[in-house]
Design a protein that fits this description.
Elements lengths: L1 H19 L6 H30 L4 H36 L3 H18 L9 H4 L2 H5 L6 H10 L14 H11 L4 H9 L5 H32 L9 H26 L20 H16 L14 H8 L7 H17 L5 H7 L1 H26 L12
């Protein structure tokens, strides 16, 4: 519109100049023409600058979504799937030759896969949400009595919700660590010709592989495209859903399940049998620390397969919004994550032992984690203008 007005102004002034000056005196005409030309150039440059400024003040949500899916979610799923393939191979080896050595190898593979799962669990979206993926892979405490009944009766359907607590990593923990008092007795359980422990062990691993394949297929087909193109700020948009899933996991899956429930925060007494990987006895701390690294990496957009690389993230999103502020919320969240890792490092390798011997330190760890719940769930969501999409009965 500015260009049209200026063109009209140029024509009007030129007509006026031609009508009021002598033919011999052309200097005034040249002067006016030159100044009008400069004015047009100045106006055009101003319009270009405004366009550039507008581009620079828009956060690139789609690039953040692409970084999330291509550099964090899908690689984490792929790494997890590869670990399950290895777990399947070690299970087959143990099944064919149940010895102390093959049991030890199988346990190491179980732990490796369980650690990789910590980088997957928070992404409860798409097919994963539809098939209750996280509940079937890492629901605890495991129902040991149900497992024993299934093995005895050989009449079970792992797709039934009633069997969610008798499968997954915690079900495997019971089969590899908890079915007898010591390793020799565990080997005897698997060595007996009429034993069905090996079959149930294989069935659990196969089901985890099947479920993971479904989730990967969902991403590979059409969900990825719809995910990265959903950039609006609505309750069903990808940014809003993933950030809600991230906070839900931090609050419930991490803070409550790993620490709060065993420490007795939500009950009248501590519950040492509710820790993650309870039957393995020594791995609950390692799993919680790995989960903290997974949380930290996602918040900062760090690539799953190359920790030296990162892309657009919640951290950068917050810094973009707070560009004019000296004290950044993202820095406070990262500082609190460092404090969480430090407190977890002080705990016993087995959280059930920690709860029984020194629950006060467990409660202190919970409090340190809770401070970041407030930063994420209250402060961060206000900055990002995102509403919580899940019911909260914890009073925080």
């Amino acid at each position: 519109m500015k260009k049209i007005i200026i063109r009209h102004l140029i024509l009007t002034l030129l007509v006026f100049v031609h009508c009021t000056v002598d033919d011999e005196d052309t200097s005034d005409i040249e002067f006016v023409q030159e100044n009008l030309k400069n004015e047009v150039l100045s106006t055009n440059n101003s319009s270009t600058d405004n366009s550039n400024t507008e581009t620079q003040t828009s956060f690139e949500h789609q690039k953040m979504l692409i970084n999330w899916v291509d550099n964090i979610i899908l690689p984490s799923l792929s790494n997890f799937e590869s670990s399950l393939t290895e777990l399947e191979a070690k299970t087959s080896l143990f099944k064919s030759d149940p010895t102390i050595e093959s049991l030890s190898i199988l346990r190491a593979s179980w732990l490796d896969s369980f650690l990789k799962w910590q980088h997957v669990e928070m992404f409860d979206i798409g097919i994963a949400e539809e098939i209750y993926y996280k509940n079937r892979i890492n629901l605890y405490p495991t129902n040991a009595k149900k497992i024993e009944r299934n093995i005895l009766n050989q009449n079970y359907d792992l797709d039934q919700s009633s069997n969610f607590s008798s499968q997954g990593f915690n079900g495997l923990a019971y089969l590899l660590f908890g079915i007898a008092e010591n390793d020799d007795e565990i080997i005897l359980k698997y060595s007996s010709k009429d034993s069905n422990y090996s079959k149930y062990l294989t069935d659990l691993v196969d089901k985890m592989i099947e479920l993971t394949g479904e989730v990967q297929k969902g991403w590979d087909e059409e969900f990825r495209e719809s995910f990265i193109n959903s950039t609006d700020n609505t309750s069903t948009s990808s940014v809003n859903k993933i950030i809600n899933d991230f906070i839900y996991y931090f609050e419930k899956g991490f803070r409550a399940n790993k620490i709060g429930i065993p420490a007795g925060i939500f009950s009248n007494t501590p519950l040492p049998d509710r820790v993650e990987a309870y039957h393995s006895k020594i791995h609950s701390k390692a799993l919680s620390l790995e989960a903290t690294y997974a949380i930290e990496n996602f918040f900062n957009g760090i690539h799953s397969n190359d920790k030296s690389l990162s892309g657009l993230s919640i951290n950068e999103y917050l810094n973009f919004i707070e560009a004019d502020q000296d004290e950044k919320l993202a820095n406070r969240i990262n500082e609190q994550l460092e404090k969480i890792k430090a407190k977890l490092g002080e705990l016993n390798n087995d959280f059930s032992v920690q709860v029984n011997q020194d629950n006060l330190t467990m409660l202190t760890t919970y409090d340190v984690i809770q401070k970041n719940v407030v930063l994420l769930k209250v402060d961060m969501l206000q900055k990002l203008n995102i509403s919580i999409d899940y019911a909260d009965a914890d009073g925080d």
